[in-house]
Amino acid sequence: MAVIEIDDLSKSYRGVQALNGVSLRVERGEIFGIAGPNGAGKTTIVECASGLRRPDGGTVRVLGLNPHDDRRALLQRVGAQLQEAALPDGIKVGEALRMYASLYDHPADWRALMDEWDLTGRKGARFASLSGGWKQRLFIALALVGNPEVVLLDELTTGLDPDARRTTWGLIRAMRDRGVTVVLVTHFMDEAEALCDRMAIVGGGRVVAEGSPRDLIAEARTASLEEAYFALTGRN
Ligand SMILES: Nc1ncnc2c1ncn2[C@@H]1O[C@H](COP(=O)(O)OP(=O)(O)OP(=O)(O)O)[C@@H](O)[C@H]1O
């Protein structure tokens, strides 16, 4: 069953056509990647799916609901780690997790989540004092604290060191294995190849290819996903 159904989605920002007829399906329990050049519209897709932006045209359904109109209902079921997330400078790691947990009907154990993401040693650290990578980890943990059925992760591992990236991959797989559907915007083809069951490559406001990494390599007749990406987006 499709957890996210996007049909013919279009969105402009003051004359800039960001999306121009995007259609895609994300099935329950898969890790679905979205890749594409800077400015291709990936974040706009995720923001429309999380209800932050209202589409100009087309339809978006998440768990059968309209994310913009049914935002309150979806907040309990969809976790999002978005690119431009921010917290008050003075809030401590533990406080942020506890506060977010209190917003949900069926939250995860925030202390266990803090452990899982290696944040326990920084429980008392203030948000402003964290490096980019530790902020990123905190945002991921916050996206998961509501025990979501679907998580939207925008450039999840940007800014993480290689060790933390690998750890994160393991945690994402573990999430999928628990039945959570994961949507992952990424610029890293090694990450897409290692993690994604299926993915969409976006270019010029449209989906230019959709399938498993192996399907995309076969479609582009290349030796690697990175080469397939260049071939399918018309960049060499
Ligand atoms: N709030 C906004 N106001 C005006 N233009 C915007 C806004 N947000 C996005 N855009 C434009 O819409 C297009 C798509 O942007 P979007 O952020 O969705 O792309 P992206 O694929 O996520 O890019 P990146 O890989 O750089 O994060 C770009 O041309 C961008 O400049």
From TrEMBL:
> Mind listing the UniProt keywords for this protein, alphabetically?
Antibiotic resistance, ATP-binding, Nucleotide-binding, Transport
InterPro entries noted in UniProt:
AAA+_ATPase, ABC_transporter-like_ATP-bd, ABC_transporter-like_CS, ABC_transporter_ATP-binding, P-loop_NTPase
* Gene3D superfamilies per the UniProt record, alphabetical: P-loop containing nucleotide triphosphate hydrolases
Main location per UniProt? membrane
Membrane-topology descriptor: Peripheral membrane protein
From which residue to which does the signal peptide run?
Answer: none
> A single Gene Ontology molecular function, please?
ATP binding
Q: What is this protein called?
A: ABC transporter ATP-binding protein
Taxonomic classification, please?
A: Bacteria, Bacillati, Actinomycetota, Actinomycetes, Streptosporangiales
